[in-house]
Fold:
Amino acid sequence: MRIIVAGASGLIGTALSRALRNAGHDVCALVRRPPASPAEFHWNPAEGRIDETALRGADAVVNLSGAGIGDRPWTRARINELSSSRLGPTRTLAAAMARQEKPPAVFLSQSGSSYYDDAGPVVLRENAPAGGGILARLCVDWEAAAHEAPSGVRVVTPRTGVVLSRSGGALGRLLPLLRLGVGGPLGNGRQYWPWITLPDVTGAFEFLLRTPLSGPVNVCAPESADVNSLIAQLAGALHRPAVLRVPAPVLRLVMGKLAEELLLASQRLEPAILSEAGFEWQHPSLAQAAAWVAGSGPEA
Structure:
């Protein structure tokens, strides 16, 4: 397959591009800087511009574009940036596909588990309703933009959970603390985080590109875990204690809405569609995932 990737330099994009190339696919990246190789094409999604030759002959487009959710405080300007950095690229890609004589067969456009908001211990399958928070509304708009792709394009919107990586990603700031024995749960720790390892994210995306699934797909591990269990397993695999809990009021004071929606919200996702379609995880259990995170060697 010839696959075009937007957001190829990020954590998931880098691992996915490598995995797709290793599988024999022709992978090209969309870049905002001048292209440095024939496998790169220039685009400026903020202005809706893209090299029209990029999508010519493409079989699939993968959209991973978007500013980091937890990178900076949620000022009004930052919230607008979170939205524009997702909706702009998605709509630019959808419009570019519509201009092709033969559009790509599949458009895999990232979404997030925050689509569901805070649901406590309730199990969330793909047919669960959207939440009403900032991130939930963002995911709703993001998925709607993906469905602006022309008729006949199979649109998949993976609602990806917390990606466990050996470096970077959601645990990029927490892992070094855990390795030093000074980390711990956030809030009361009873909130569920839908987690998945980086190799399983790339495996799931490859699976979604070649199977006939469409629409929203929960991309997380089949074993659910609350934050207490997640931190305990990671710390145990690292042979470190994890007793320095950060109380919810402190998180709210320091991080505001960002803490409430990103760290303290509970989303107990079930990857129903992936399971029913026969996807096989490398790390289906939290114990396996923690052992992988604590290990060494290449990430994916």
Notes: The chain has ten helices and 13 strands.
